[in-house]
Amino acid sequence: VPIAEAVRNLNDQLDRDTDPDQFMTLLVLGWSEDSPTIQYVNAGHDAPGVLRAGADTIEQLPATGIPLGLFPGVEYDTGSCATLAPGDALLLTTDGCCNSYSFCIKP
């Protein structure tokens, strides 16, 4: 199942099973040995980033959809990140990290 379809199905399930004032953010990453390009769906979660070897700036990977559980039938796009090279770092945070500290990636 493509990750965007899986996230759409999860969104619909959460919309049915949770209270109207509840929602969830989610980041799903996927890759294969055949294609080192990272595919992702970011449903309103804190933005991941890529720090390239030798670079001093972080490439932010933008959200591809809204948080889960807000509305039924939402379509989520799949984003992609160029191939990671040796020495590159994929930077991930949790929402608790950004709630507790001020070092999270800002647009």
Give a structural overview.
The chain is an alpha+beta fold. It has two helices and six strands. The chain has helices spanning 3-17, 95-100; strands spanning 26-30, 38-43, 49-51, 58-60, 79-81, 89-91. The chain has a three-stranded antiparallel sheet, covered by helices on one side. Strands 4-3-6 form a three-stranded antiparallel sheet, with no helix packed on it. The model has no long low-confidence stretch (mean pLDDT 86).
Number of helices: 2
Q: Work out the helicity level.
A: 10-25%
Largest sheet: 3 strands, antiparallel
How far apart are the first and last residues' alpha carbons, in Å? 31 Å
The residue-averaged pLDDT reads: 86
Number of strands: 6
Structural class: alpha+beta
Low-confidence region ranges: none
Question: What's the helix-strand series?
Answer: HEEEEEEH
Amount of beta strand:
15-25%
How many whole angstroms does the radius of gyration measure?
15 Å
Biggest sheet, spatial arrangement of strands: 1-2-5
3D shape: elongated
Oligomeric state of the chains present here = single chain
Provide a brief overview of the structure:
The chain has 107 residues and is an alpha+beta fold.
What would the keywords be for this entry?
single chain, 107 residues, alpha+beta, 3-stranded antiparallel β-sheet, 2 helices, 20% helix
Map the helices and strands.
Blueprint: H1 3-17, E1 26-30, E2 38-43, E3 49-51, E4 58-60, E5 79-81, E6 89-91, H2 95-100
Antiparallel strand pairs: 1-2, 2-5, 3-4, 3-6
